[in-house]
Amino acid sequence: MSYRGQIIKAMSGFYYVRPDRDEIIKGSPADNSGTYQCRAKGIFRKNDITPLVGDRVLFELTDTDDVEGNVTEILERKNFLIRPRVANVDQALVIFALHTPEPSTELLDRFLIGMRSKEIPVILVFNKDDLGSEGEPETFRRIYKGAGVRLLFTSALEHSGIDEVRELLRGKLTTVAGPSGAGKSSLINALSGRELMTTGDLSRKTGRGKQTTRHTELLEIEEGSYIIDTPGFSSLEFDGLDSSSLDSLFPEMVRYKNECYFAGCSHINEPDCGVKRKLLEGYIPRERYDSYVLIYNELSKIRRYS
Questions:
Q1: Residue 166 pLDDT > 90
Q2: How far is CA 47 from CA 12, 59, 69, 237, in A?
Q3: Which of 140, 139, 206 is nearest to 179 (CA)?
Q4: Contact 68, 41 (CB under 8 A)
Q5: Cα atoms found within 13 Å of the Cα of residue 158, Cβ hemisphere only
C-alpha cells in the first residue's frame, strides 16, 4: 500500500519521509521524529532521477511493523535546484557574512543567477552586521539595489534584524544556503528561538568557517514555517544556461537592453551599447557588471567546447 509524504532529510543514501497529516498508517509507528527511513527504488537510478529534500512522494513500507520503506514515486515538482539539492521551495534565503569572512560578490551573484533562472524569489541577508565597518552596509545596498532581491542586515549575536527575517519566512518553505562561516547556523537558531542547529567556529588559519552542516534537511522554525538547510556551497553550476540569455538574469541590465544598437548585444565588445553606457553613467554597479562578464565568458567557453 502506498502512502503520501514529504522527504525532510537525505543522508547516506537514505530518505527520511514524513507522512501527510491525514495519512493513517496502521500498525507501523514512525520513529521519534515521525519519519520513515526509506530507500529509493531502483527505477530512479535507471532513469537518472534523484529524490530531493522537499519532494512530495509516494512510499511503501517494507514491513507493516517497521519504520522503513521505499520511495516509489516522486510527485510533480513545483521547482527544483541541483545546488543546493532541494525541491518545491517558495523562496531562498542566502546568508553571507558582512565581515569575517569577507563576502565574495562573484559567488553571491552566481547564486542569484541560479535562483532567478528558476524564478525563485531571494531574500539576501548579510549577517554579522555588528562586525562590519560603518560604510559597508551602504556599499552592498548600492551594489544590490537593482538586483531584484530583498536585502537585509542582521546580527545573530545581537539579535538585530531577526524579527524582520522571521516575518518574511512565515508560512513558507525556504531553502537556506550560504558559505561556511557566514553565521548561518547561529542565525537559524535565533530565528527559531532554540538550538536547532550546531554552530561552528572560524578557522584561525584561514579565517573561514568550519562546515557544520553535513546533509540536507527540512526544519520547522515555527508552526507552518519551514526551512531547508543545506551544506555550505563554494561554487555553483549552471544547468542548461546559455551565455546569450545571461543578461536576462541581471535586472539592472534588462532595463537598458533596448538601448543597444545591435540586437543580441552581449554588452562586452559591441559599440553603441546601452548597457555599457549606463554602466559608465553609474546606473549599473561595476561589481555586478564584472560578474556578468566573468560568467558570460565562462558560459561561452563551455558552449564552444561542448
A1: yes
A2: 20, 18, 20, 22
A3: 206
A4: no
A5: 10
Q: Give me the amino acid identity at 159.
A: H
Mark out the alpha helices in 32-93 (DSSP H runs): 42-46
Q: How buried is 9 (Cβ within 10 angstroms: 0-12 exposed, 13-18 middle, 19+ buried)?
A: buried
Bridge partners, 10 (sequence order): 15, 216
The type of residue at 226 is: Y
The answer to whether the CB of 219 falls within 8 A of the CB of 227 is yes
Residues in the chain, total: 306
Lowest mean pLDDT among 44-48, 65-69, 131-135, 270-274: 131-135
Assign 89 to helix, strand or coil.
coil
Please state, as a whole number, how many other Cβ atoms lie within 10 Å of the Cβ of residue 245. 11
3-state secondary structure of 87: strand
The DSSP secondary-structure symbol of 53 reads: B
Nearest partner of 104 among 120, 123, 126, judged by Cα: 126
Q: What is the pLDDT of residue 252?
A: 96
pLDDT above 90 for 52: yes
CB atoms within 10 A of CB 156: 25
Spatial CA neighbour of 248 closest among 58, 112, 100, 97: 112
Helices (H), the chain: 42-46, 105-117, 136-144, 162-169, 184-192, 251-254, 274-280, 286-305
Residue 209 has pLDDT above 60, yes or no: no
Report the candidate in 197, 235, 203, 236 with the shortest Cα–Cα distance to residue 101. Answer: 203
* 19: enclosing H helix or E strand: strand 14-19
C-alpha to C-alpha distance for 70 and 89, rounded to whole angstroms: 23
- Give 102's DSSP letter: P
Instruction: Flag whether pLDDT at 250 surpasses 80.
Output: yes
Residue 213 has pLDDT above 70, yes or no: no
For residue 183 the three cell numbers come to 553565521
